[in-house]
Design brief:
By secondary structure, the chain is mostly helical. Helix content is about 80%, strand content about 0%. It has one domain. This is Sodium/nucleoside cotransporter 1.
Length: about 130
């Protein structure tokens, strides 16, 4: 995803919280990391995208309950499909986080580039 090595364990823990419990608890942990300055800006942005989505273990019951009401004779088939769907949804969130990591490095470069241009033009106008 592009998370700095120093933050890999923290982001992995957030993703584990998201998958096993839910994304809201993971976002609370992310806010705490941010509040304590325990995570880099890059890792924060990537984690924000990785935690998006309702793809966690607790949603398997929600999906099975709603789909099972529509087609009660196919609950067994849906049980196997739901696990694959949750996995695919997590992969989609992680791919979005990868794109965010790529774009963040581009934005980081552009910001430093424009800062240099602004500093240079300010020096030029002040002399």
């Amino acid at each position: 995803m592009g998370v700095p090595w120093v933050d890999c364990h923290k982001v992995a823990k957030l993703i584990g919280t998201k998958v096993m419990l839910n994304e809201f608890m993971a976002y609370v942990d992310l806010v705490e990391l941010k509040r304590n300055n325990d995570i880099t800006k890059r890792a924060e942005i990537i984690a924000t995208f990785a935690l998006c989505g309702f793809s966690n273990i607790s949603n398997i019951g929600t999906v099975l309950g709603s789909l099972g009401a529509m087609a009660p004779h196919r609950k067994g088939e849906m049980a196997t499909i739901v696990v694959k769907a949750i996995t695919a949804a997590n992969v989609a969130s992680f791919l979005t986080a990868c794109v965010a990591g790529t774009l963040f490095s581009s934005l980081e470069y552009e910001e430093s580039y424009f800062d240099k241009i602004n500093t240079t033009s300010m020096q030029y106008h002040s002399t």
